[in-house]
Amino acid sequence: MFSRLLVFALKRELLSVETIMKKLISLYNNPDTLMMITLYPKKGELYSRGTSGVASYAKNIARHMKRKVVVLADVISSPEAYEEDNVLVVRCFRRGSPLLWLQILKTMRSFGLVRNIHIQFDFAMYGHIFPTTSVLLFLGCLSLFGKKASVTLHHVIMDVRKISGHIGLGKSLKDSIKGKIYNSYFHIFYAFLGIFSQRVVVLEEPLKEKLERRIDRDKIEFIPHGVDTKVKLLTKSEARKRLGIPQNDYVIMFFGYVNWFKGADIFVSYFKEIDAILKRKVHCIVGGGISPTMKDEPFYQTYYQKVLNEIETAENFKITGYIPQNKIGYYFSASDLLVLPYRYFMTASGVLSLLFSYQKPFIVSDNFSEIFESNDFRSVFGEVGLRKRDFVFELNKKSCITMSENVLKNGIKNKIVNMTKIVREKRSYKNTAKMYEKVLSTNLWATKSHS
Questions:
Q1: Strands, DSSP E only, in 42-197?
Q2: What is the CB-side half-sphere exposure of residue 297 using CA atoms within 13 A?
Q3: 31-226+430-450 and 236-427 share one CATH topology?
Q4: pLDDT class for 444, splitting at 50, 70, 90?
Q5: pLDDT tens across 264-312, in order?
Q6: End-to-end distance of the chain based on CA atoms, in angstroms?
């Protein structure tokens, strides 16, 4: 008797789940819905452990949109579907699977009326070369099915040699040949991406100029990287109490995954012997840990271990590892200065976005300073009386330390903070979501197709 009741209860539960799912599908399956394909944070989180920074970006965009959004996302433990922030999240594909795009196509069959498909994309987030390259076949299929596909490119790479350490290329003849092959691959990839996509979105204006070499400029849209304006701001005093950091010392931080192109090793090498700046003791923090998208690569493991070994020998250094979402604000609020010693500009910076969220002073390498050529940055610089040379350092130790001292003297620091406050509002996710609404609207495509 008990077993019959249990079977009946299970069948009833399954029917209930199936009924709910059908209702959700019918609610979201309409021509005005946007379907976004991306990695996505865990339910109830914005910055989840073990996923790409693209995930939090995608969630910020999706939850600020006025239209209905279906997110086809990566499976965390098992396939599931749920509604969150007026977004239907369907976890249906496994990162790195050779069948990834087929898994997505299968799920899309339940949303046959949805025409607008948008893909968040970078070259590491979906796995190795096969699932990454297969996005072109996927885009081709969408075109055949009458879908309107667009892509946000989180990286634009025109010369692989400038990110050699990031992808494990050395200086041997063999690696030189590999570099040329990779360059050809990227150029061809972008060309076909432009052919199969209705729109290609980049997150900084100079990246649009780079991409115009391979894609029709009329297809490329610049939408500034969004800024989270809903973060909880703490006083420096309160944040330092929670972290156990002395109130009168300087705190200088590198934030983000420990990556070669971001220059985590450079930050450690420049500051490991600096005990004091402007006669105040210095605490240096690497606010992050191992990259979840690169952790399985042998060359990356070697690089990461080297950084750890350097930190172990520096008395003034601490590496946090992954910082839970509820503690990110502690580290930003406690810091006096953020250092971005990037080796190459190929992407908008999620770290820079968080700097604007928490209104913190910062300095950046000249290799990365091209990002500030966007017109919206230039207009704000004029408004607050700031110049790029006030916070940009040459990629050497002397220049970096000197620039750190100059900014910490307050005159420049205050101007940078004023700049971050203005950019914070202009680039809020609420505003960037509106830009996406305009660029990805069905009406825009319909107008284009009839013109």
A1: 69-74, 80-84, 87-93, 116-121, 148-153
A2: 19
A3: yes
A4: very low
A5: 999 999 999 999 999 999 999 999 999 988 888 999 999 999 999 999 9
A6: 69
Q: What is the per-residue pLDDT for 129?
A: 80
Per-residue model confidence (pLDDT) at position 451: 40
Predicted pLDDT of residue 18: 63
Q: Per residue in 73-124, pLDDT tens?
A: 999 989 999 999 889 999 999 998 989 999 999 999 999 999 999 999 988 8
Q: Is 68 left (phi over 0), alpha (psi -120 to 50) or beta?
A: beta
The architecture of the domain spanning 31-226+430-450 is 3-Layer(aba) Sandwich (3.40)
- And the tokens for 189? 């990839």
Other beta carbons less than 10 A from residue 23's beta carbon: 10
Question: Quick one: which of 321, 330, 207 has its CA closest to 264?
Answer: 321
β partners of residue 91: 73, 80
State how far the alpha carbon of 53 is from the alpha carbons of 24, 225, 250, 352, in Å. Answer: 28, 12, 28, 12
**What does the radius of gyration of the chain's CA atoms come to, in whole angstroms?**
23
Sorted by where each begins, the domain ranges of the chain are 31-226+430-450, 236-427
Q: CA-based diameter of the chain, in Å?
A: 80
Contacts of residue 102, defined as CB under 8 A and 6 or more positions apart, other chains included, come to none
User: In Å, how far are 71, 213, 257 from 155, measured between CA atoms?
Assistant: 21, 15, 16
Task: Give the C-alpha separation, 170 to 190, whole Å.
Answer: 25
Domain 236-427 part of CATH 3.90.1150.10: no
Helix (H) or strand (E) holding 281: strand 280-287
CA distance 424 to 356: 5
Residue 20 confidence (pLDDT) above 70: no
